[in-house]
Amino acid sequence: MSGTPRFLLDVRDVSKSVQGPEGRLDILDGVSLQVATGESFAIVGASGSGKTTLLGLLAGLDTPSAGSIRLDGHALENMDEEARADLRRQLVGFVFQSFHLLPALSAEENVMLPLELEGDRLARTRAREALASVGLEARRRHYPAQLSGGEQQRVAIARAFVHGPRVLFADEPTGNLDQRTGHHIIDLLFALNRDHHTTLVLVTHDAQLAERCVRRVELEEGRLRAHSGEADA
Amino acid sequence: MNLLRLSLRTLRREWRLPELRTLAGSLVLAVAALGVVATLSTRVERGVLASAAELIGGDIGVSSPQRLPDDLATRATHDGLKVNRSASFPSVAFAHGRSQLLDVLATDTAYPLRGTLELRDAHGHTQTGHGPAAGNVYLDHRALVALQLQVGDMLQLGGRELHIAAELVRQPDGGQLIALAPRAVMSLTDAEQAGLLGIGSRARHRLLLAGAPAAVHDWRDWAQSTTLPQGAQLITPEQTRQRMRSAFDRASAFLRLTALLSALLAGVAIALAAQQYARRKTSEVALLRALGTPRRRVFGLLIGTLLALAVPALIVGVALALGLAQAAWLFASTLFAGVPTVLPWGPALAAAGIGLAVLAGFALPPLARLAEVSPVAVFRDSVTRRVRRFDGLYLVPVLVALALIWSQSGSARLAGILAISLSGVAVAAALLAWGLLWLARRVAPGAHPALRLGLAALARRRGLSVIQATALGMGLTALLVLAIIAPSMLDGWRSELPSNTPNWFVLNLQTNQRDDFSKALARLGADQLNMLPLAVGKLVAIDGHPIDGLHFNDPRAKDWSDRQLRLSWAGTLPPANRVIAGHWFTPHPAQAEVSVDTMWRDMFALKLGDTLSFDVGEGRLDARVTSFRQVDWSSFRVNFFLLLDPAHASALPHTWLASFHLPRGHATQVATLSRAYPNLSLVDVDDLLDRIHQIVDRVSGAVRWVLAFSLLAGALVLAAALSASAAERRHEAALLRTLGARRGQLRIAAACEFALLGLIAGLTATAGAAGAGWWLGRQVFHIEHYVPPLGSLALSALIAAVVVMLLGLAGTRKVTRTSPMRLLREG
Ligand SMILES: Nc1ncnc2c1ncn2[C@@H]1O[C@H](COP(=O)(O)OP(=O)(O)O)[C@@H](O)[C@H]1O
Ligand SMILES: [Mg+2]
């Protein structure tokens, strides 16, 4: 690959099927989409429509059964687990519905994790800065169990941003939060997206939330139903 | 009943949870280990007792200076026991104008009931036999040599002409301490008819019994409750010989120790697994509570589930224990040829009971806490798990452990030592782990990224790491004590019987014979000659109060005060003696002084400064108690309860007691020597030593078998403890994978983490085992100059680190393969 690719994510005709107890199950079928660098992109759809599966494929956590996915120009389907892990470490940040903070680690230590994986010597300082940017510097020594859901998610966001990823994947980041807190979280995500020029891929079943993204796709039983927003942009 | 059904259903659902499997596995293992050890111990104990029985020639008996009442034998026959009557006495034998004092055993033909009587016929063939028929006699080699006789010749004994039917090679000797003279075995009928056993004879009558353990036990209880004739004593395998007895005590102490540590290891694993289970169940319990299930019912359900799991585990454990014990016995039984080989069920069932107690004690605290989870936890998962300072429930496992230690060790002192050293190890492990973790945190920033990640992960999981390091440290201490300390103590114990141990004793040596006798011995090639003065006297008063008027709580005191005492004196403290109170004799004390053994001190409740009065010959000696001595009676030296100061005692009428070492095969020369000094009694200890060596070999062989099994059990429990903590790493690994960690990174991190954990545990365990070993060797097993093998201990700390690392890696293999998709799917 030479130069910066036009699309940070370029998905062509991706299908995913798994072998279930009652034979083959097609979860995704012929999905194609592109996400430009710095864009905010929403994947919406009913529960069970395949959003999480698609997100996992986009982030290189899993490989498609057919089709191709290019993340920053790298063809994920041709890479092995380890190479994809390297790519994730450098390019990707995650925010999950249920936060996934390690309960044994303090807020600061949780945020340090991605930096530590890269062997960053300034991990602690940078983690502290990241926590400050989500307004939780004072809580850095607290453990997840001592934080509210919204605070935990803010810690998770700090962790997702701390190593300066090019793309941030969020799977129902407000799913476990009340509406007000959810809005705060989304505001925070978009603010960081703007400030760091990070691409944001957001999975949600909340249409209102999806509206705030520049572009949206809707999944229905594993197929893309309609592209929207592209025209608006 | 509803609860039971619900519990069973829960179990069916949860059976696949790793921690429940670990819990069941630990329980199986604990019961199996305890059961194997206890079953084998029981058999080994029976083996050791049976060996003692072989030495005595029966399972139990009575000896008495008078004829024994008939009801003793009648009762025994009635109980289904076999009976052997005999009497022993010194008597002079004549042949071809020569005479020799013999130590004669007159017995019926039932002799021996246990063990073997080995005889050599005129053709030199050795075979086993029984007490001689009337008119026959067996003589040992020394007697034959002394009288210049051969098998087949006639000899005169007790006024009767007897036919020498065989040479006596080896005989069970009725628990008699030492045969003073050459030996002969004759028929009891002959002896009675010759009037050798009548009133005024010096015969000691003996009744030996053998049969089923229960019947022996019944008879023993009965005999202890009846009044035996004056001066009569029970002969039991336990009290047979000082040496024999201490061998047995040590063996059973080792065995108990082994079983105990296995049980505690299992407890550690069970505690870890239960903790894990409780953690996993928190949200479910919170849900149940939120849905309105009463706390008691939740607790009942948890207990029910645990019991439903425990019962089959206990059954499997017992079956495994019995199977393994049987298999081990098949290999080890050669050590105890001739010992009854019934597989005892009791110990394995008792092990199941202990297993249940361990389960209850160690699994209860987390489960009880679990039942208390507030319904609010539904809303904020895990909020109740943390932030809890002290919980009285954690005393339960401690109490269970203490109860176990106490019940298994049987001795309060051993229990105390074990409890203190184990908790010492626990505290030390916790502190050391804490310190090393702190250090790791400081070191982490400069290290290689993967290494740093591992160190950091370990350092951050402080609480858990400290608990794990502590548990591993305890487990390893147990393993080290079993694997290194115990065998090295066995070696120390065996090396106490050096090859040049004095093997001959000489009694009745007169002062004017000393020089000549020494020279004669030197010509024979004897060495290690040691002579001690020996006076015989009676204790007549303490602090001026006549002994007959004094009362002592200890019943032995009366017995000793009736007896002739052996008194000796020495200017320097003899080896294997230690002054524990007061001071050793000064060169020329103004008043006679005496140094007293601790058993005597306790028996007569003596204090420093008390005055003991002895009648010796015509004279009387008043000696002040100036020191108390701890004597190692298991050393093969001649020791005395009472030692006098030489300045005052050397004037007492005395003879000399000599001991020396003479290589084997000098029986003829010794017989010559014995004729040259007819007044001397020469005692051959070689035979005795042989048998003791044999018994020590048997015991240590059997103990090694038991050790091998509990070692295996310990290692398995250790692995179980590791795997119990592995589950919670999965989530972490999935997260790290998602964040882009390479598999290699995770593996190196895990390797660092476990290696450090192993090293911490290994170092603390080394210190703990060395300390416990040193203490045990000194205080319990009385092995002088025992130094724990520090080199092997340190090496094993390193090995422990590597093994824990490998176990950890094996346990986290699956973890590093966890698909990162898991995390997305989990929420
Ligand atoms: N590994 C799998 N095996 C079987 N079915 C799966 C697997 N992964 C996902 N599915 C199924 O695929 C469908 C889509 O799942 P998911 O991507 O989680 O949907 P969403 O996130 O939109 O709710 C669901 O019906 C789910 O049950
Ligand atoms: Mg989903």
UniProtKB/TrEMBL annotation, chain A:
Annotated SMART domains: AAA (SM00382)
Pfam hit, one: ABC_tran
GO cellular component entries: transmembrane transporter complex
PROSITE patterns per UniProt: ABC_TRANSPORTER_1, ABC_TRANSPORTER_2
Keywords, ordered alphabetically: ATP-binding, Nucleotide-binding, Transport
GO molecular function: ATP binding; ATP hydrolysis activity; transmembrane transporter activity
The ABC transporter domain, residue ranges: 9-233
InterPro entries: AAA+_ATPase, ABC_transporter-like_ATP-bd, ABC_transporter-like_CS, MacB-like_ATP-bd, P-loop_NTPase
Domain of life: Bacteria
The UniProt record lists the keyword Transport: yes
The family this protein is said to belong to: Belongs to the ABC transporter superfamily. Macrolide exporter (TC 3.A.1.122) family.
Name this polypeptide is given: Putative ABC transport system ATP-binding protein
Automatic annotation (TrEMBL), chain B:
Superkingdom of origin organism: Bacteria
Pfam families, per database record: FtsX
Subcellular location per the Swiss-Prot or TrEMBL entry: Cell membrane
Occurrences of domain ABC3 transporter permease C-terminal (ranges): 259-373, 707-820
Key words of the record: Cell membrane, Membrane, Transmembrane, Transmembrane helix
Membrane topology reported for the UniProt record: Multi-pass membrane protein
TM region(s), chain numbering: 20-40, 253-278, 298-320, 349-371, 392-409, 415-439, 469-490, 705-727, 748-770, 790-812
Any one cellular-component term (Gene Ontology): plasma membrane
Protein name: Putative ABC transport system permease protein
Annotated organism of origin: Rhodanobacter glycinis
